[in-house]
Amino acid sequence: MNEQTGRRERKKAATRRKIADTALRLFLERGYDEVGIREVAAEADVAVTTLFSHFPSKEALVFEQDSGFERGLVQAVTDRHPDEPLVPALRRQIRDMVRHCTAPEAAPVQHLINTTPALLQYEESMRLRHAESLAAVIAADLRVPVTPTACRTIARFSIDAYTLARDSEDPEVAVDEVFRMIEAAWASVHPA
């Protein structure tokens, strides 16, 4: 039973990856607005219903790693060492995300996002959702006794640090610069 479940999950993951890769290839070749969902499904050799069982919208096809990014943010809080302060753990995770999204191979995808209004709007809603998930896990962390507003603020600042750093000339320096400000703000509500 366990082997069968594992095989089923691997097959689902492979189908998801194939759909996302196919969609991204088509979007980069022809433009996001020029490619329809039916075309993506046909090219990936899946039914439209199968495509939608893996991705809730056309925009989600471009942000295939969305759930992994969100999970990484949550785990930065929940999986950190008991003695590790919150802000350095968040800085490390944001730095990793920025490295991933500013790697040379990510440039065509970033250009696609930056030049497609629907994708920019989706990315903004995704960032807000990530900030809310991050705020919830910070608030639930027993080592962090602060108000929900403070948790939401630090979460939003952290997500904004990603955006600011990703779009800067020197992303690594930008992450550190923004997180120095975040650390100062956090210290004002959560003294060590």
TrEMBL record:
Keyword annotations from UniProtKB, A to Z: DNA-binding, Transcription, Transcription regulation
Pfam family, one: TetR_N
Metal-binding as UniProt keyword: no
Top-rank taxon: Bacteria
Protein's UniProt keywords contain Nucleus: no
Record feature DNA-binding region, as residue ranges: 36-55
Residues annotated as transmembrane: none
Annotated HTH tetR-type domain residues: 13-73
Protein name: TetR/AcrR family transcriptional regulator
Lineage: Bacteria, Bacillati, Actinomycetota, Actinomycetes, Kitasatosporales
